[in-house]
Amino acid sequence: MDTIERIIALSDAFGPSGFEDDIASIVKSELAEYEPVMDHMTNVRCEKEKDSDKPRVMIDAHMDETGAIIQAVKPNGTMRFIPLGGWSASSFPRSPFIIRSKDGKDIPAVVAQKPVHFMSKAERDKTPETSDMVMDAGCVSKEEAETLGIGIGSPAVPDVKCRYDEERKLFYGKAFDDRIGVAAAIDVLKQLKDEELPCNLCGSFSVQEEVGERGVRANAAALKPDVMIAFEGCPADDTFSEEYMIQAGLRRGAMLRHYDVSMITNWRFQKLALDIAKEKGIPVQESVRSGGGTNAAMVNISEGIPAIVISVPVRYIHSSNCWCALEDYESVVELTKEICRRLDYRTVNSL
């Protein structure tokens, strides 16, 4: 696959937290030359050079997307569910979803709440909660749902197909947090495969980030990195912020995060990345976030490993419908390649 095809395939793939198998299969296929390994959590990892004494640089992207899991089936065949990851409840109603059955079939469904025609004024004015919603696969009984192979524990994701606008170089689809990062990590590893580097480049494709940054801990324990670069599809803020507060806008370049509630970025590593971007003319944005959290924090606090986050701005992450720009993606890939070309032991030790 080329880059465009890969991004589309990754966006379309089914993979909420805990059910990342389809994405792992794509990663293993695309990076077959690296002989990647997969653990029992479904984390995938690889390294450029076996038994190398060079500093180990781990680039990480999480494979999971926000989704839902069926909690119970009602007698009428509709299903209670709980979110997997940080959804706003208002994003759910009337959204088409796919529920994966126990035998691997994809069953279409829609998230429903009481029709407005039957709501009281108090119900209409109430902020929606997922406890007031159901997932409806068109069943009329619990038994019918069971014949479809769906029930307690069945995972679900938005039913959205990725589209690429060639003229405007824009992607529209779901799961760009963090499939756009997964695609970028694959591209970096592919493009640097035959290049002599001062570091040993390691790929980490982790699971369950959206429910507590769980998988990356296993990858970090196995790969033992000296430094880490985390790729993210970060929330774009350019459609609702004043101009002076826009820190992750579409078509403005890669975003480098100085601070979020999970990590204060190593300023020396951050400065190195920003200096390289300036030197090479790679467009970047800088941000300080009052919320958020990434895999970088988990690796950073485990053994004090220097880590930075390089992100592709994505409009409306953690919802069914998102936008991101190819040029921002390319900025992430190019900047990361340039950083990896500088990370010898002397530079790593200076961080």
Short synopsis of the structure:
The protein has helices spanning 3-12, 21-30, 121-125, 142-147, 176-191, 215-223, 267-280, 295-303, 326-340, 345-350; strands at 37-38, 44-47, 56-62, 67-73, 79-84, 96-100, 106-112, 134-136, 155-158, 163-165, 170-173, 200-206, 227-235, 254-260, 263-264, 284-288, 307-314, 322-325. By secondary structure, it is an alpha+beta fold.
Give a verbal description of the structure.
The chain is 28% helix and 27% strand. It is α+β, with helices and mostly antiparallel strands and 351 residues long. The protein folds into 2 domains: 3-65 and 174-350, Aminopeptidase (3-Layer(aba) Sandwich); 67-158, Peptidase M42, domain 2 (Elongation Factor Tu (Ef-tu), domain 3, Beta Barrel), CATH 2.40.30.40. The strands form 3 sheets. Strands 1, 2, 3, 12, 13, 14, 15, 16 and 17 form a 9-stranded mixed β-sheet that branches. The chain has a 6-stranded antiparallel β-sheet with strand order 5-4-9-6-7-8, with no helix packed on it. The longest helix has 16 residues, at 176-191.
